[in-house]
Every structure is written in structure tokens, then in C-alpha cells.
From TrEMBL:
Origin superkingdom: Bacteria
The protein's name in its UniProt record: Uncharacterized protein
Upper classification of the organism: Bacteria, Bacillati, Bacillota, Bacilli, Lactobacillales
Amino acid sequence: MLANKADLSTVANVPDKVDVQNLKTENQQLRDQVTTLSGQLLKVQSDVAAINAKLATLPAK
């Protein structure tokens, strides 16, 4: 169903043109950040597992 003019009045300011190259660049930067953060998360998970393993060897109080 097509929107009528009243429906269109609720749409936020949508640009007439989209800078596709800018979006591609931004997308790649975000992908790179996700890759970096994923690597950091794996390192933290590994560190936590190592700490937990050491804690398990300590005598109980």
C-alpha cells in the first residue's frame, strides 16, 4: 500500500542522495573495529580462564 501525504510527514529528514563511498568506508571501519574487539574479547576470555584455573588450585579457606 502506498503511503499518503500524512504518512510521509512523519518521515525524518531523508537525504536526496546517499554518499555510497562514505558508507562503504564507514562500514569497513566498523568491521575492522569489530575484528579488533573480537580479538580483545578472546584474549580477555583466555585470561579469565587462566585466572580461574589458578584459583581452583588454591586451598579453600
